[in-house]
Amino acid sequence: MSDTPAVSVDGLVMRYGDKVAVDGLSLTVEQHTITAVLGPNGAGKTTTLETCEGYRSPQQGSVRVLGLDPVRQRKELHPRIGVMLQGGGAWSGVRAMEMLRHLAKLHAHPLDVDMLAERVGLADCGRTPYRRLSGGQQQRLGLALALVGRPEVVFVDEPTAGMDPQVRRTTWELLEELRADGVTVVLTTHYMDEAERLADRIHIIDHGRLVASGSPLELIRGGTVTTIRLVVTRPFPPGAPDSLRAALGDETVVSQLDAVSLLVTGPADATTLAKVSRWCEEQGVLPESLQLGQRNLEDVFLELTGKELSP
Ligand SMILES: Nc1ncnc2c1ncn2[C@@H]1O[C@H](COP(=O)(O)OP(=O)(O)OP(=O)(O)O)[C@@H](O)[C@H]1O
């Protein structure tokens, strides 16, 4: 049974009217891992997660969670998964601890509610009605609600959005403890440091398709590939990334970060630096800085999707 993937998505297609939100997506989540699903806004992450959670039926393809069909075998699967929805998923008038206690009663072997509340940092706002909780507190309640039933697989949609740095770190520790206890965590996030720190495996999706999969280290190819961040004093002329790419050759990827900065990924050796300087001279732009660095997940994401991940 432990060989069964926690999640397997095979050729999933989901549309809203004419809009294709998920476009033949296939991916696997191994058990006892933290797996991050990354993608720009509108990439199809939430739709995919909602299909895994049984809230939507696949229009094409199939989805299995712990080997079960999330819609047809919902009764069997539901007690074994936990879901943290974007926006908390609680009623507006109910107090945080009431909600947690109520949900605990619906499970056969719930966690100790007081301990869980303490752990996620809800202890001092347990009597506060849901609508009066801060965004970060609502997130924490959402996480507690997802965990109270001791799930085998937990789906968390942007678990630390709106949390302050201290609570984010505590939440990361909590997710790592869950993995150590054998729980599988599937999360979406817009924070690269979160994915890099937590995830055993990352799936990057864009336009409803899988564009890359691997461990953080595999994705950044061992951190050996280097980058040059070029910042100039005046905005680049139109078409600058293509023109620089043509000047540098096929081994490099050039992405525009903003009006005055470009990121070159590839061998950042003396020859490349000389070519970048020569290109600046030809374009009539003056470099303000040429910074060498190691390629990170944020760079990989930008290359693959053409967009920055950070909110
Ligand atoms: N209920 C809906 N009706 C119509 N279109 C929708 C609906 N939900 C999502 N979409 C569209 O489907 C696409 C995928 O949306 P989805 O929410 O799955 O993306 P996402 O990757 O989770 O985005 P985000 O990072 O912004 O949460 C988007 O273009 C979105 O506008």
Automatic annotation (TrEMBL):
GO-annotated molecular function: ATP binding; ATP hydrolysis activity
Membrane topology label: Peripheral membrane protein
Record's subcellular location: Cell membrane
UniProt KW keywords: Antibiotic resistance, ATP-binding, Cell membrane, Membrane, Nucleotide-binding, Translocase, Transport
Statement: the UniProt record of this protein carries the keyword Cell membrane: yes
Pfam family, one: ABC_tran
GO terms for cellular component: plasma membrane
Principal place of residence: membrane
SUPFAM superfamilies referenced in this protein's UniProt entry, alphabetically: P-loop containing nucleoside triphosphate hydrolases
A biological-process GO annotation: response to antibiotic
Domain ABC transporter: 7-232
CDD domains: ABC_DR_subfamily_A
PANTHER family, sorted: ABC TRANSPORTER ATP-BINDING PROTEIN (PTHR42711)
Protein name, as recorded: ABC-2 type transport system ATP-binding protein
Organism, scientific name: Nocardioides szechwanensis
